[in-house]
C-alpha cells in the first residue's frame, strides 16, 4: 500500500543533497517537550490520535479516520532561523502532512487542543537524505553536512532544520529513509 507524501519537484541533485520545490500542503502539528526521542514519541502519539479519529468531521457530528502519510517531521521549537544545533532543543514541533484531498475548509478538526492544523505555502528546501537510525549525534552530523553544503552553494536559509522520517519503527535500518531539510530562498536552477 502506497503512503502519500507531499508533492515536490526536484530542482537540483548533488549526491545525497537535493533542492526541492514543494507544493502547498496542510499539516497537523503539536508542540512537545523532552529530548529528541521522547518528543518524537509523544508528538507522534498525539497526532496519530487525531488521525485515528479523535476529531470532528466538518460535515457531521461524527469523527473521521484520516489516512497516514509520510514523513513524520520534527524541528526544534527553540531554534531561531539559522540555528543549526537541532539536537540541543527540549521543545519540539512535530507534524504530519495531511492527505492532499483535504483543504482547510473540509479537514476534520482536532478534538485535542494540543493538535493544530496549519496550511504551509509552497516552499523550497535543501535536503540531505540518508538511511539508518537517528540519534542526536547522527542528526547533528547530517544537519552540519547540509548546512555546509548550503553555504558552499551560496544559498540563504529561511528556517531552522527539520528531521523527516518516512518509515515505521520496524523497518530495517538499511531501508529507513530519513532527511534533514532546511527552507531556503527561491532557487533558480542554472540553464
Topology:
Blueprint: E1 8-14, E2 17-22, E3 25-33, H1 36-51, E4 55-56, E5 72-76, E6 91-97, E7 109-110, E8 116-120, E9 123-130, H2 136-152, E10 162-165, E11 178-184
Antiparallel strand pairs: 1-2, 2-9, 3-6, 3-8, 4-7, 5-6, 5-10, 9-11, 10-11
Descriptive overview:
By secondary structure, the chain is an alpha+beta fold. The protein is built from 2 helices and 11 strands, in the order E-E-E-H-E-E-E-E-E-E-H-E-E. The strands form 2 sheets. Strands 1-2-9-11-10-5-6-3-8 form a 9-stranded antiparallel beta sheet, with helices on one face. Strands 4-7 form a two-stranded antiparallel sheet. Strand 1 (8-14) and strand 2 form a beta hairpin. The protein is globular.
Please provide a brief summary of the model.
With 191 residues, this protein is α+β, with helices and mostly antiparallel strands. The chain has helices spanning 36-51, 136-152, and strands at 8-14, 17-22, 25-33, 55-56, 72-76, 91-97, 109-110, 116-120, 123-130, 162-165, 178-184. It contains two helices and eleven strands; from the N terminus they run βββαββββββαββ.
Amino acid at each position: 500500500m502506497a503512503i502519500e507524501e507531499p508533492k515536490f519537484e526536484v530542482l537540483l541533485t548533488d549526491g545525497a543533497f537535493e533542492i526541492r520545490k514543494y507544493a502547498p500542503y496542510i499539516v497537523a502539528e503539536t508542540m512537545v517537550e523532552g529530548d529528541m526521542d521522547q518528543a518524537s514519541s509523544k508528538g507522534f502519539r498525539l497526532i496519530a490520535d487525531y488521525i485515528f479519529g479523535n476529531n470532528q468531521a466538518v460535515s457531521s457530528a461524527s469523527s473521521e479516520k484520516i489516512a497516514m502519510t509520510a514523513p513524520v517531521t520534527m524541528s526544534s521549537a527553540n531554534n531561531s532561523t539559522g540555528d543549526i544545533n537541532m539536537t540541543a532543543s527540549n521543545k519540539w514541533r512535530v507534524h504530519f502532512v495531511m492527505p492532499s484531498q483535504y483543504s482547510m475548509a473540509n479537514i476534520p478538526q482536532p478534538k485535542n487542543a494540543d493538535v493544530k492544523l496549519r496550511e504551509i505555502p509552497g516552499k523550497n528546501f535543501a535536503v540531505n537524505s540518508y538511511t539508518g537510525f537517528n540519534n542526536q549525534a547522527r542528526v547533528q552530523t547530517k544537519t552540519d553536512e547540509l548546512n555546509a553544503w548550503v553555504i558552499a552553494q551560496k544559498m540563504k536559509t529561511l528556517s531552522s532544520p527539520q528531521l523527516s522520517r518516512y518509515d515505521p519503527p520496524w523497518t530495517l535500518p538499511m531501508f529507513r529513509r530519513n532527511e534533514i531539510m532546511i527552507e531556503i530562498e527561491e532557487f533558480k536552477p542554472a540553464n
